[in-house]
Amino acid sequence: MIALFEQLQGELRINEPLAKHTSWRVGGIAQQFYRPANAQDLAVFLSQLAEGEPVLWLGLGSNLLVRDGGFAGTVIATAGVLNALEIEGNKLNAEVGVYCAKLAKQAARAGLKGASFLAGIPGTLGGALAMNAGAHDGETWPLVSSVTTVDRQGVLRQRGPEDFTVSYRHVDIPEGEWFVSAELSLEEGNAEVEAADIKALLKRRNITQPTNQPCAGSVFRNPENDFSGRLIEEMGLKGLTIGGASVSEKHANFIVNDGTATAADIEALIFLLQQKIEQQYGVRLQPEVHIVGEAA
C-alpha cells in the first residue's frame, strides 16, 4: 500500500525498476523504494509503514533474484547510504550499507586482520550479516561482537551474537527486526601483509569467477563435504542455457546473464540444475540466492 509519509529526510520512489539495482540486471518494479538518509531517518520511515507491508532490504543486489513481476511492497536500499565506518583499536563499527570490499580494505589499512575474506564478497555488510556470508575459509559472524537492529516500530536495539542462531549461510533473526550496524572484533596484524592478501584474493577471484558478466555470486550452497560447482561441472553442465541465462564456463556455480535474460530464465535454469544434480547424485542443491517477488 502506498502511504503518505511525514518528516522523511531520505528519497522515496514509486514503481522503481529493480533490474538496475540487482547484479543480475533483472527484476520487475518495486511498489515503493526508499533510500534512508541515516539510521534515525530509517527508524522514522519504518514506524510509518502500514502493518503487514512486505519489506525487502537491498544492498548491492547480489545474491538476489527479483522475479519479473516485481515486488509488491517496500524496498529499503542501504548501499552507499547507511555507510558510516569507524575503527577504534581492534574494533570496527560499520553500518549495513558499507561495501564488504571497502570494509576489508579499511581494516587492512588499519593493520587489522581477520576481515580480508570480505574483499571477495560482492555485497554489503547487511547482506553478509543476514546470511553469514563467507569466502576463502572466512565467515562473517565469528567477527561479530554486537549488532544494532531496528524493528517495524522504529525501535533500535543493541544485541549480541547470543541472540542469533548462526549456521552455514543462514542466520535466524528475531522476527520483525533488521540489521542497521555491527561492531566487529579483529586481531592486530600487519597492514602490508593484509593488503597483499586482499590483492591476491581479488586476483584469484577475477581468474576463477565471471566478474565481468552480470551474475549474483554463488547460486547454490555447498552440500556437506562437497562443492556445488564440482557436481555441476562433473555433469558437463557448464554452458547450459535457458533464454539469456547460462551456467558460467568459468565457474559452474555461477549463472550469468548475456544481457537478454529474464528473471524467469534464471529461475528456470536454477530449477533445471537442481533436477539434474538430484537425478544423478541424489543431492538436492539448495539455492544460496534469495528469490523474491511475483512472476510476470
User: What composes the largest sheet?
Assistant: 5 strands, antiparallel
Strands ordered across the widest β-sheet: 6-7-15-11-12
What is the global morphology? globular
Q: Determine the N-to-C terminus distance.
A: 20 Å
Hey, roughly how much beta strand do the residues contain? 25-35%
Q: Give the name of the CATH architecture of the largest domain.
A: 2-Layer Sandwich
As for the number of domains, it is: 3
Query: Which quaternary structure do these chains form?
Result: single chain
Total beta-strand segments:
20
Report the C-alpha radius of gyration, rounded. 19 Å
| Average pLDDT taken over every residue | 95
Look up the CATH topology of the largest domain.
Uridine Diphospho-n-acetylenolpyruvylglucosamine Reductase, domain 3
SSE order, as H and E?
EEHEEEEEHEHEEEEEEEEHHEEEHE
| Total count of helical runs of at least 4 residues | 6
CATH hierarchy class name of the largest domain = Alpha Beta
Low-confidence stretches: none
* Helix fraction by DSSP (H/I, runs of at least 4): 10-25%
